[in-house]
Amino acid sequence: MRIGVLTSGGDAPGMNAAIRAVVRCAIASGDQVFGVYDGYKGLIEGKIEELSRKDVSEILNKGGTILGTARLPEFKFEQVRMLAVKQLEKHDIDALICIGGDGTYTGALRLHEMGIKTIGIPGTIDNDIASSSRTIGFSTALNTACDAIDKLRDTSSSHQRCSIIEVMGRHCEDLALFSGICCGAEYVITPDTGLDKEKLLADLKKNRLAGRRHAIVVISENICDVHQLAKEVEEYSGYECRATVLGYVQRGGSPTPEDRLLAARLGKYAVDLLHEDITGVAVGIHHNKLINTPIEEALQMKYEPNKELHELVKKIS
Ligand code: F6P
Description:
- The protein contains eleven helices and eleven strands.
- By secondary structure, it is of the alpha/beta class.
- The strands form two sheets. A seven-stranded mixed sheet has the order 3-2-1-4-5-10-11, sandwiched between helices. Strands 7-8-6-9 form a four-stranded parallel sheet, with helices on both faces.
- 6-O-phosphono-beta-D-fructofuranose (F6P) binds next to loops.
């Protein structure tokens, strides 16, 4: 087979490990692999080159994606996707492995509907692909967030401050929820808990009056302006307060062993499925077993808030 591979959307640590696994597993089976540079944008521009085993050496431990990535909202237009189909035909590519999040999956689904064999691999720090209990990059981003929150706790405690820390995750709460638990945050605010500002301010005031030196508030992005919230906390609670937006630092860095292992397993599994002629699916992991789900279904699956972890936060914060 001649297999194309691309990364698209927000980059995630471990994407390189997935590319490496796809290339090496496919070549071991006698296939050829073609790297598509800069996601669907590069695909329509024909930025396609064959990858050898050697081309993917020394990348396993590197963050980012050697193929580059991009967001291409125009890919929703059929005439734009036709350019992609033409490029795939021109390069005689039989199937395309698309590594990324739900935008990437939507692109892969549309191509599949146009007769292209596609497979999706979940690569995003957000862990927001419900067809897989883990996405490649989440473990590393969680480590990065925890490292930063631990450091912020040190300085918050020294200065007797409240620290509000905004983490990424788009509309998924996992980065906030998991990092909040792992770092012993006093408050974890996510799209699923919502922000009850009055209660937060009142609780902080109570804690301050009770003599607690500092408070850590971990909050998901897209909930509120955290700098404004910090001002309100200062005004009402008695704590000095600083807000820190962790931002894109969460997308970089060397992938954790967990991300590397997941990426390697999913990369091989995607190649295996192509050999079985199973396409139009998204690969994933559930209870440590590799699974595949039709991409359309994967895109419709809803994230379920983790009740057990929410209860845990309430008790130990
Ligand atoms: O999907 C990964 C992610 O980092 C989200 O957590 C964040 O909301 C978004 O991408 C940022 O996207 P962009 O790179 O387009 O600014």
